[in-house]
Amino acid sequence: MTTLLICEKKSAASRIAHLLSGGDQTQRSYHKHPYFEFKRKGEDYICVPLRGHIVQYDYPKKYNNWGRVDEEKLIWVEPEKKMTSKRIANLLKKKGKEVDRIVVATDYDREGELIGLEAVRIAQNDSEIPIERARFSSLSKTELEETFSNLKGVDVKLAESADSRQVIDLAWGAVLTRFLSKASGRYGKNFLSVGRVQSPTLAIVVHRDHEIDEFEPEPYWKLTALLEKKIEFEAHYKDDRVWDKEKAEKIYKKVEEADQAETVAFEERTKKDWPPSPFNTTTFLSDANKIGLSPSQAMSIAESLYTAGWISYPRTENTVYPKSLNLKEQLKKLKRSELSKEVDEILSQDKIYPTKGKKKTTDHPPIYPIKPATKKQLSGNQWKVYELVLRRFLATLAPYGVKRLRKAEFDIEGEEFRSKGTELIRPGWRKYYPYYKAKEVKIPSLEKGEMVDILDMLIDEKETKPPNRHSQGSLVKIMEKKGLGTKSTRHGIIQKLYDRDFIRGKVPSSTNSGKSVIDTLESHAEMVTKPEMTSRLEEDMEKIAQGDMEKEQVIEESREMLQTVIESLKKDREEIRKELKQSLTDQNAVGVCPKCEDGTLLIRKSKNGRFVGCSNYPECENTYSLPRSGRIKEGDGDCPECGSPKIKVYHSGDTEELCIDVRCDHSHEQRYRGRCPECGGDIREQRSYRGKRFLGCSNFPECDNTYPIPQRGNILSFGESCPECGAPLQKMLKKNKEPWIFCPNPDCSYKFEGKDKK
Fold it and tell me: Residue 654's pLDDT is what?
């Protein structure tokens, strides 16, 4: 018997072939696309890796013209399935004629089932080849052997659920993106992207930004007594915040001279500090964000660790370890890991009781480590993610911690003050999982009636603070709570918002484009920005998978919703056009034009790159060139030399503020780093297209003399030339370090030993 084995990507196919064949697989190539051949239990296997979807939906070519095709008509157009890789398709057809059965071994989830069935239909080519399904959660030899000894059937309904998502998302994205892009005049790479899940997710960020922008701080007063009994601790006035200044000052005047506080009540108790639940995708992405990884980065790394057999499948909703997972045996395997000491401690417990979360599913277990790893085997972010997964696994099997809670009430000159303390007296699981910091406030043990010394009495005027922005990790949790997207798509949605320049920053904040799109949609088609519509469609797609709804029924429902939205938008087309154009103009503004004095300088793009031009063009033809790389924003004030606006240029981890006019003497002074020894021109600090800084001659291209320089730190001209090679010496200024004088010529061996000029 010969089996065609279909895998989702090359890395997975290579590992599966290796484990099932005992390392005796042969890699072959079909027009440079790899595939594997091996034997298992006397049977022949042909293992073909895909590259994700090799079939995707798109509209027929005649509907690609944005100007001629009405968006409303597009809603009801049936999309076509188009081949994205003819080479892989031809390989599947060729091998499909040589085999007796097909086994789908793609990721076992909604998307993986569709990817597998797409490939099966190509390979079958109208024949009746039997199909079976390999369902596994880790790429380990034990699980794969068990899986291939107990193959299942393919889940057509699950695949149809994913198929419906493609049709629905294509329609919503294409129709709304076209409408808003045309209304705002944003075409080509600058189009305004709108999506069924993307837009309500962006709305969450925009709403929080509006809360922050519109927040008006309120003053309040805080009264604090600094007390002492063996240790210093604080007690606060009973109302915590006093909103009336006169009242606060009156209380302070009454208590400021007091020497002692009388303890009128004291309470002490202990509380169990329960370990966290096992990792599902959402909690994993959230905690990975705490160690500096975006959801997109974390998922990409987790997938690579899964494919290499280090961790279990990272796309799961489950937070309960299955009974089939022998936790003690799994711990014994991990004794050879970098955390062997911690593993031994968990194993030494009399009994191991794993924590359980609220979600229990049967498709995949929670994320856990499959085999031991060390820092030599994994490095950088791969090790960080593996360690996070390993420590979470240990924490879920560790004993609970114990907190001591204390509360005290004091009488100070007839006024009530209160103190609360939390102390971790047994770390329990926190010893193994340091990513959650326990906030501790210590207060001493007291008795009713006991007098405590007052060291100081303080009154502080404070202001209420705006709410914090949502981190990427918390945004994933909010998306899950509101039913936006799935475990497999949420990280990608957030990354798409970054790619579209709708949000920026490690802690996401919305750009003017992001705000413009959401504000416009909320004014004219609020349904698009609300989670209810998207959540309802997600539930219906899940019903397709369960067999409770038909794919066609859900797609029809989605189209009717979209019809309602586009009718509302078309009715207000002119108003939407004005709103978007004004908002997007504001986003690209970098100051007032100094030439005509009533125009706005706007960032524009041409075939030769970006530049700044006056909004009064063609009446005013004032323009400025821009740096080739970096994000541009309006600077603070005008240039002291020429009066032109200043701009801020943001590079990765570096910001510079420049006069917008590169011909200005002040701008020249900012970039001047000495004389060129080759031609006598000016050596200037410059940036490459990728944002890397270097020193280059102003007479380029006639003189191509350049020098590499460090990418961090402030560099200035030292004012002298290198005595050996003639290159201009540079002074490096770094915070908390002595200035460092160096020759930028990498081929020069000169070491500065003179005295730094102040």
Answer: 66
Active site residue 30: no
Q: How far apart are CA 346 and CA 332, in angstroms?
A: 10
Within 8 A by CB and 6+ apart from 326, the residues are: none
Give the predicted TM-score (pTM) of the model.
0.81
* Same-domain status, 181 and 137: no
Which domain CATH number covers 46? 3.40.50.140
Alpha-carbon distance of 472 to 287, in angstroms, equals: 10
CA–CA separation, 723 and 130 (whole Å): 80
CA atoms of 221 and 126, how far apart (whole Å): 78
The verdict on 227 and 127 lying in the same domain is no
pLDDT, residue 338, reads 93
Mutual orientation of helices 512-524 and 573-587 as an angle, nearest 10°?
160
Reference 114, options 8, 4, 3, 5; nearest CA is: 8
Distance CA 758, CA 735 (A): 16
Closest by alpha carbon to 121, among 111, 131, 110? 131
Are residues 260 and 343 both part of a single domain? no
Q: Contact at 8 Å (CB) between 413 and 262?
A: no
Give the percent of the chain with pLDDT over 70.
99
Q: What is the C-alpha separation between 515 and 521, in angstroms, rounded?
A: 10
Q: How many domains does the chain have?
A: 4
DSSP labels, 229-298? ESEEEEEEETTSSB--HHHHHHHHHHHTT--EEEEEEEEEEEEEEPPPPPB-HHHHHHHHHHTT--HHHH
**Arithmetic mean of pLDDT, 177-202:** 88
Of residues 45, 313, 321, 433, which has the active-site annotation? 313
Cα separation, 506 vs 513, whole angstroms: 18
**Residues 387 and 259 both lie in one domain:** no
How many Å apart are CA 413 and CA 416, to the nearest integer? 9
Note whether 364 and 388 are same-domain residues. yes
Residues 6 and 148 in one domain: yes
Residue range of the domain that includes 339: 281-399
The whole-angstrom separation of Cα 643 and Cα 660 is 10
Span of 288-297, 350-359, 568-577, 601-610 with lowest mean pLDDT = 601-610
Residue 733 domain-assigned (yes or no): no
